[in-house]
Amino acid sequence: MYQYYAVIYQLLLYLGIIALVIYLFLPLQERIEQFYRNKVVWITGASSGIGLELVKHLAVLSPTTKLVLSSRREDELEKIVEELKLDRDRCLILPLDLEYHGDLFKSKVDLVLDRFDHIDILINNAGISQRSLIKDTQYSVDQRLMSINYLGTVTLSKSVLEHFIAQKHGHFVVVSSVSGYVGTPSRSTYAASKHALHGFFDALRFEHEKDNIHVTVICPGYIRTKISENAFS
Ligand SMILES: NC(=O)c1ccc[n+]([C@@H]2O[C@H](COP(=O)([O-])OP(=O)(O)OC[C@H]3O[C@@H](n4cnc5c(N)ncnc54)[C@H](OP(=O)(O)O)[C@@H]3O)[C@@H](O)[C@H]2O)c1
Questions:
Q1: Are residues 1 and 61 in the same domain?
Q2: TM segments (predicted)?
Q3: CB of residue 71 inside a 6 A radius of ligand 1
Protein backbone atom coordinates (compact mmCIF):
# COMPACT_ATOMS: atom_id res chain seq x y z
CA MET A 1 0.00 0.00 0.00
CA TYR A 2 2.79 2.35 0.98
CA GLN A 3 4.54 1.70 -2.39
CA TYR A 4 1.31 2.49 -4.23
CA TYR A 5 1.07 5.90 -2.52
CA ALA A 6 4.75 6.60 -3.19
CA VAL A 7 4.29 6.01 -6.95
CA ILE A 8 1.22 8.30 -7.05
CA TYR A 9 3.08 10.91 -5.07
CA GLN A 10 6.04 10.81 -7.47
CA LEU A 11 3.75 10.95 -10.49
CA LEU A 12 1.95 14.02 -9.12
CA LEU A 13 5.26 15.64 -8.29
CA TYR A 14 6.57 15.18 -11.84
CA LEU A 15 3.30 16.39 -13.37
CA GLY A 16 3.45 19.43 -11.10
CA ILE A 17 7.02 20.20 -12.18
CA ILE A 18 6.09 19.86 -15.88
CA ALA A 19 3.05 22.14 -15.40
CA LEU A 20 5.20 24.71 -13.59
CA VAL A 21 7.82 24.69 -16.35
CA ILE A 22 5.11 25.15 -19.01
CA TYR A 23 3.52 27.94 -16.94
CA LEU A 24 6.82 29.76 -16.49
CA PHE A 25 8.07 29.20 -20.03
CA LEU A 26 5.02 30.27 -22.05
CA PRO A 27 4.57 33.73 -20.57
CA LEU A 28 8.32 34.33 -20.78
CA GLN A 29 8.30 33.48 -24.48
CA GLU A 30 5.36 35.83 -24.97
CA ARG A 31 7.10 38.55 -22.98
CA ILE A 32 10.23 38.18 -25.10
CA GLU A 33 8.19 38.37 -28.30
CA GLN A 34 6.35 41.45 -27.04
CA PHE A 35 9.51 43.20 -25.91
CA TYR A 36 11.32 42.69 -29.23
CA ARG A 37 8.30 43.09 -31.52
CA ASN A 38 9.24 45.18 -34.62
CA LYS A 39 12.42 46.38 -32.94
CA VAL A 40 15.72 46.84 -34.73
CA VAL A 41 18.42 45.00 -32.79
CA TRP A 42 22.09 45.35 -33.73
CA ILE A 43 24.31 42.56 -32.40
CA THR A 44 28.11 42.72 -32.57
CA GLY A 45 30.08 39.48 -32.39
CA ALA A 46 27.17 37.75 -34.12
CA SER A 47 29.37 35.21 -35.91
CA SER A 48 30.16 33.01 -32.91
CA GLY A 49 29.45 32.02 -29.30
CA ILE A 50 27.10 34.20 -27.27
CA GLY A 51 26.29 36.55 -30.17
CA LEU A 52 25.38 33.67 -32.46
CA GLU A 53 23.13 32.13 -29.79
CA LEU A 54 21.40 35.50 -29.38
CA VAL A 55 20.75 35.63 -33.12
CA LYS A 56 19.37 32.07 -33.11
CA HIS A 57 17.03 32.78 -30.20
CA LEU A 58 15.77 36.10 -31.53
CA ALA A 59 15.23 34.59 -34.97
CA VAL A 60 12.83 32.05 -33.48
CA LEU A 61 11.31 33.88 -30.50
CA SER A 62 10.58 37.15 -32.23
CA PRO A 63 9.93 36.83 -35.97
CA THR A 64 9.17 40.54 -36.40
CA THR A 65 12.51 41.70 -35.02
CA LYS A 66 14.94 43.18 -37.54
CA LEU A 67 18.46 41.94 -36.97
CA VAL A 68 21.73 43.67 -37.81
CA LEU A 69 24.57 41.17 -37.62
CA SER A 70 28.12 42.44 -37.19
CA SER A 71 31.56 40.92 -36.79
CA ARG A 72 34.72 40.88 -38.92
CA ARG A 73 33.98 37.69 -40.90
CA GLU A 74 31.31 38.52 -43.45
CA ASP A 75 31.39 34.97 -44.92
CA GLU A 76 30.59 33.51 -41.49
CA LEU A 77 27.66 35.90 -41.04
CA GLU A 78 26.39 34.97 -44.52
CA LYS A 79 26.58 31.29 -43.57
CA ILE A 80 24.55 31.91 -40.41
CA VAL A 81 21.81 33.73 -42.32
CA GLU A 82 21.68 30.82 -44.78
CA GLU A 83 21.65 28.13 -42.10
CA LEU A 84 18.97 29.84 -40.00
CA LYS A 85 16.98 30.57 -43.18
CA LEU A 86 16.64 34.16 -42.01
CA ASP A 87 14.43 36.26 -44.25
CA ARG A 88 16.75 38.80 -45.94
CA ASP A 89 14.08 41.47 -45.42
CA ARG A 90 14.56 41.23 -41.69
CA CYS A 91 18.33 41.11 -41.50
CA LEU A 92 21.34 43.12 -42.49
CA ILE A 93 24.86 41.75 -42.57
CA LEU A 94 27.17 44.56 -41.58
CA PRO A 95 30.82 43.54 -41.25
CA LEU A 96 32.91 45.70 -38.97
CA ASP A 97 36.20 45.52 -37.13
CA LEU A 98 36.08 47.17 -33.71
CA GLU A 99 39.85 47.51 -33.73
CA TYR A 100 39.71 50.08 -36.53
CA HIS A 101 37.39 52.64 -34.97
CA GLY A 102 39.13 55.66 -36.44
CA ASP A 103 36.26 56.45 -38.82
CA LEU A 104 33.90 56.56 -35.81
CA PHE A 105 31.62 53.96 -37.44
CA LYS A 106 29.29 56.72 -38.62
CA SER A 107 29.04 55.18 -42.08
CA LYS A 108 27.97 51.87 -40.50
CA VAL A 109 25.23 53.58 -38.49
CA ASP A 110 24.04 55.33 -41.66
CA LEU A 111 23.82 51.97 -43.44
CA VAL A 112 21.56 50.59 -40.70
CA LEU A 113 19.37 53.70 -40.74
CA ASP A 114 19.11 53.62 -44.56
CA ARG A 115 17.92 50.05 -44.35
CA PHE A 116 15.68 49.97 -41.26
CA ASP A 117 15.05 53.65 -40.53
CA HIS A 118 15.88 53.37 -36.84
CA ILE A 119 17.81 51.39 -34.21
CA ASP A 120 16.24 50.32 -30.91
CA ILE A 121 18.88 48.16 -29.25
CA LEU A 122 22.64 47.88 -29.70
CA ILE A 123 24.04 44.69 -28.15
CA ASN A 124 27.77 45.29 -27.68
CA ASN A 125 28.81 41.67 -27.46
CA ALA A 126 31.96 41.37 -29.60
CA GLY A 127 35.16 40.97 -27.66
CA ILE A 128 38.43 39.16 -27.36
CA SER A 129 40.09 37.61 -24.32
CA GLN A 130 43.61 37.07 -23.09
CA ARG A 131 45.67 34.19 -21.76
CA SER A 132 48.98 35.66 -20.57
CA LEU A 133 50.62 36.72 -17.33
CA ILE A 134 51.28 40.43 -16.92
CA LYS A 135 55.06 39.93 -17.04
CA ASP A 136 54.79 38.16 -20.41
CA THR A 137 52.21 40.42 -22.08
CA GLN A 138 53.49 42.63 -24.88
CA TYR A 139 52.40 46.26 -25.14
CA SER A 140 50.82 45.45 -28.52
CA VAL A 141 48.49 42.92 -26.83
CA ASP A 142 47.46 45.43 -24.15
CA GLN A 143 46.83 47.97 -26.89
CA ARG A 144 44.75 45.62 -29.06
CA LEU A 145 42.64 44.41 -26.12
CA MET A 146 41.80 47.95 -25.07
CA SER A 147 41.26 48.96 -28.67
CA ILE A 148 38.78 46.19 -29.48
CA ASN A 149 37.01 45.61 -26.16
CA TYR A 150 36.91 49.18 -24.88
CA LEU A 151 37.58 51.85 -27.52
CA GLY A 152 35.84 49.99 -30.36
CA THR A 153 32.74 49.35 -28.26
CA VAL A 154 32.67 52.90 -26.93
CA THR A 155 33.17 54.46 -30.36
CA LEU A 156 30.41 52.40 -31.94
CA SER A 157 28.08 53.22 -29.04
CA LYS A 158 28.82 56.94 -29.31
CA SER A 159 27.93 56.83 -33.02
CA VAL A 160 24.60 55.19 -32.17
CA LEU A 161 24.03 57.52 -29.21
CA GLU A 162 23.40 60.51 -31.48
CA HIS A 163 20.56 58.60 -33.11
CA PHE A 164 19.16 57.41 -29.74
CA ILE A 165 19.11 61.01 -28.45
CA ALA A 166 17.33 62.26 -31.58
CA GLN A 167 14.66 59.54 -31.47
CA LYS A 168 14.33 59.92 -27.66
CA HIS A 169 14.81 56.28 -26.85
CA GLY A 170 17.34 53.47 -27.13
CA HIS A 171 18.95 50.64 -25.26
CA PHE A 172 22.63 49.77 -24.96
CA VAL A 173 23.40 46.23 -23.87
CA VAL A 174 27.00 45.51 -22.99
CA VAL A 175 28.33 41.98 -22.61
CA SER A 176 30.97 42.44 -19.95
CA SER A 177 32.13 39.61 -17.69
CA VAL A 178 32.75 38.75 -14.04
CA SER A 179 36.20 40.02 -15.02
CA GLY A 180 34.51 43.42 -15.17
CA TYR A 181 34.34 43.20 -11.35
CA VAL A 182 37.49 41.34 -10.46
CA GLY A 183 40.77 40.71 -12.23
CA THR A 184 42.08 37.16 -12.31
CA PRO A 185 45.47 35.69 -13.32
CA SER A 186 46.26 35.75 -17.07
CA ARG A 187 43.35 38.10 -17.76
CA SER A 188 44.83 41.42 -16.57
CA THR A 189 44.15 43.68 -19.55
CA TYR A 190 40.98 41.78 -20.50
CA ALA A 191 39.68 42.51 -16.98
CA ALA A 192 40.84 46.13 -17.27
CA SER A 193 38.98 46.53 -20.57
CA LYS A 194 35.77 45.19 -19.01
CA HIS A 195 36.21 47.40 -15.89
CA ALA A 196 36.61 50.36 -18.24
CA LEU A 197 33.34 49.50 -19.99
CA HIS A 198 31.54 49.54 -16.62
CA GLY A 199 32.84 53.04 -15.88
CA PHE A 200 31.89 54.37 -19.29
CA PHE A 201 28.41 52.86 -19.44
CA ASP A 202 27.59 53.79 -15.81
CA ALA A 203 28.33 57.40 -16.78
CA LEU A 204 26.30 57.10 -19.99
CA ARG A 205 23.35 55.76 -17.97
CA PHE A 206 23.47 58.81 -15.67
CA GLU A 207 23.89 61.29 -18.52
CA HIS A 208 21.10 59.95 -20.72
CA GLU A 209 18.43 58.58 -18.40
CA LYS A 210 16.55 61.82 -19.16
CA ASP A 211 16.60 60.92 -22.89
CA ASN A 212 14.91 57.57 -22.20
CA ILE A 213 18.15 55.73 -23.03
CA HIS A 214 18.75 52.54 -21.08
CA VAL A 215 21.94 50.67 -20.32
CA THR A 216 22.21 47.01 -19.32
CA VAL A 217 25.61 45.56 -18.48
CA ILE A 218 25.67 41.76 -18.41
CA CYS A 219 28.43 39.90 -16.57
CA PRO A 220 28.52 36.22 -17.47
CA GLY A 221 30.77 33.68 -15.82
CA TYR A 222 32.50 31.05 -17.92
CA ILE A 223 30.60 29.87 -21.03
CA ARG A 224 32.17 27.31 -23.40
CA THR A 225 32.66 29.24 -26.68
CA LYS A 226 35.58 29.94 -28.98
CA ILE A 227 36.74 32.74 -26.64
CA SER A 228 39.65 30.72 -25.23
CA GLU A 229 41.03 29.64 -28.60
CA ASN A 230 40.64 33.19 -30.00
CA ALA A 231 42.31 34.79 -26.97
CA PHE A 232 45.49 36.86 -27.32
CA SER A 233 48.52 35.40 -25.57
N1 LIG B 1 32.63 32.77 -23.13
C2 LIG B 1 32.79 33.23 -21.90
O3 LIG B 1 33.16 32.48 -20.98
C4 LIG B 1 32.55 34.68 -21.58
C5 LIG B 1 32.41 35.04 -20.24
C6 LIG B 1 32.17 36.37 -19.94
C7 LIG B 1 32.07 37.30 -20.94
N8 LIG B 1 32.21 36.93 -22.23
C9 LIG B 1 32.11 37.98 -23.26
O10 LIG B 1 31.15 37.59 -24.21
C11 LIG B 1 31.44 38.23 -25.46
C12 LIG B 1 31.33 37.19 -26.57
O13 LIG B 1 32.33 36.20 -26.38
P14 LIG B 1 32.15 34.68 -26.82
O15 LIG B 1 32.39 33.86 -25.61
O16 LIG B 1 30.90 34.49 -27.57
O17 LIG B 1 33.45 34.52 -27.74
P18 LIG B 1 33.65 34.12 -29.28
O19 LIG B 1 32.89 32.88 -29.58
O20 LIG B 1 35.12 34.14 -29.51
O21 LIG B 1 32.95 35.32 -30.06
C22 LIG B 1 33.54 36.58 -30.15
C23 LIG B 1 32.84 37.39 -31.22
O24 LIG B 1 33.44 38.68 -31.31
C25 LIG B 1 33.77 38.95 -32.68
N26 LIG B 1 34.98 39.79 -32.73
C27 LIG B 1 36.21 39.49 -32.24
N28 LIG B 1 37.07 40.48 -32.51
C29 LIG B 1 36.36 41.44 -33.18
C30 LIG B 1 36.72 42.69 -33.74
N31 LIG B 1 37.96 43.16 -33.72
N32 LIG B 1 35.74 43.40 -34.36
C33 LIG B 1 34.48 42.92 -34.44
N34 LIG B 1 34.09 41.74 -33.94
C35 LIG B 1 35.03 41.00 -33.31
C36 LIG B 1 34.00 37.58 -33.31
O37 LIG B 1 33.69 37.58 -34.70
P38 LIG B 1 34.75 37.68 -35.89
O39 LIG B 1 35.86 36.74 -35.59
O40 LIG B 1 33.95 37.30 -37.10
O41 LIG B 1 35.15 39.11 -35.91
C42 LIG B 1 32.94 36.75 -32.59
O43 LIG B 1 31.70 36.86 -33.24
C44 LIG B 1 32.82 38.85 -25.31
O45 LIG B 1 32.70 40.24 -25.10
C46 LIG B 1 33.38 38.20 -24.06
O47 LIG B 1 34.31 39.02 -23.39
C48 LIG B 1 32.45 35.63 -22.59
A1: no
A2: 6-26
A3: yes
